């Protein structure tokens, strides 16, 4: 009898760049680790890297690596790294290194073969371009990844959250859950905004991440629950 090992794969998008995708993905990795099994974060495309003797290094990818139970070479966590913190299609063009969907997929296949949980962090928001003919959304649709939406709580986030949820739905992908992330110590009308988002987003709220003095800490799992994804 054939034994199929099924990896849980999720794509983490956000209402915007700086919405808290990396913080939330680290929380997801920590929560999944508590459930057991091997976990890994994947940042297929990173724009905004520092040059090191080993090559470009991106802080998101390093944070995901630090919160993964698998220890892997950097380029398996982040195969496509670019220097300038701009939209990937611009950084890629400037560095004359085209991004193709097959590159992102090859990296994902490798991680799926090793991990029980793969959390894939996007770049910016849902429709971020990767080239003149490819957006992150198109690749996620090709891969049929369930989506987790990180809502960076602030004035204006309701519209961005609902637009993103609609685009995910129109792509035919499941919105597996959403995470509310407090982007400041005192966010705009927190109770009313959470209530509004809960009413309008057709997906489970996985958790609320408060404003943290140290968002890079290892106790993020307490703010969300990956078992709500099942
Ligand atoms: N809950 C929080 N408490 C305190 N600081 C936070 C919180 N969430 C995010 N931040 C800070 O806000 C900034 C943006 O967060 P983060 O890097 O997770 O965003 P992102 O959506 O991953 O952005 P990108 O599009 O660049 O990947 C970071 O400096 C992060 O440390
Ligand atoms: C540089 C930034 N921190 C992210 N890595 C990439 C953000 C892409 C934004 C694209 C857009 O303008 O919508
Ligand atoms: Mg990030």
UniProtKB/TrEMBL annotation:
This protein's GO CC annotations: cytosol
List of residues binding Mg(2+): 22, 60, 121
Pathway: Cofactor biosynthesis; biotin biosynthesis; biotin from 7,8-diaminononanoate: step 1/2
Residues the record lists as binding substrate: 47
Record's subcellular location: Cytoplasm
Catalysis: reaction(s): (7R,8S)-7,8-diammoniononanoate + CO2 + ATP = (4R,5S)-dethiobiotin + ADP + phosphate + 3 H(+)
Active site: 43
Required cofactor(s): Mg(2+)
Residues binding ATP, per UniProt: 18-23, 60, 121-124, 181-182, 210-212
Region forming the signal peptide: none
Gene Ontology biological process terms from the UniProt entry: biotin biosynthetic process
One MF term in the entry's GO annotations: magnesium ion binding
Domain of life, source organism: Bacteria
EC number(s) per entry: 6.3.3.3
Matches recorded under InterPro entries: DTB_synth_BioD, P-loop_NTPase
Pfam families, per the entry: AAA_26
Alphabetical UniProt keywords: ATP-binding, Biotin biosynthesis, Cytoplasm, Ligase, Magnesium, Metal-binding, Nucleotide-binding
Subunit structure: Homodimer.
Record function comment: Catalyzes a mechanistically unusual reaction, the ATP-dependent insertion of CO2 between the N7 and N8 nitrogen atoms of 7,8-diaminopelargonic acid (DAPA, also called 7,8-diammoniononanoate) to form a ureido ring.
UniProt xrefs under PANTHER family: DETHIOBIOTIN SYNTHETASE (PTHR43210)
UniProt family annotation: Belongs to the dethiobiotin synthetase family.
Name by which UniProt lists this protein: ATP-dependent dethiobiotin synthetase BioD
Encoding gene (name): bioD
């Amino acid at each position: 009898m054939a034994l199929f090992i099924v990896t849980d794969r999720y794509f983490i998008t956000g209402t915007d760049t700086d919405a808290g995708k990396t913080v939330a993905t680290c929380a997801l990795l920590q929560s999944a680790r508590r459930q057991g099994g091997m976990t890994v974060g994947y940042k297929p495309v990173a724009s905004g890297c520092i040059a090191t003797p080993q090559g470009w290094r991106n802080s998101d990818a390093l944070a995901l690596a630090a919160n993964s139970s698998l220890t892997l070479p950097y380029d398996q966590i982040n195969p496509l790294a670019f220097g300038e913190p701009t939209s990937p299609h611009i950084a890629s063009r400037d560095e004359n290194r085209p991004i193709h969907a097959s590159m992102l997929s090859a990296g994902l296949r490798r991680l799926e073969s090793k991990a029980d949980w793969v959390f894939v962090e996007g770049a910016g928001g849902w429709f971020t371009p990767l080239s003149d003919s490819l957006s992150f959304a198109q690749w996620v649709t090709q891969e049929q990844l369930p989506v987790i939406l990180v809502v960076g709580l602030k004035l204006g986030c309701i519209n961005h959250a609902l637009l993103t949820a609609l685009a995910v739905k129109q792509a035919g992908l499941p919105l597996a859950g959403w995470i509310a992330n407090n982007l400041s110590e005192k966010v705009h009308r927190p109770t009313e905004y959470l209530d509004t988002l809960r009413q309008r987003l057709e997906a489970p709220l996985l958790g609320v991440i408060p404003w943290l003095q140290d968002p890079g800490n290892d106790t993020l799992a307490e703010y969300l629950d990956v078992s709500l994804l099942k």
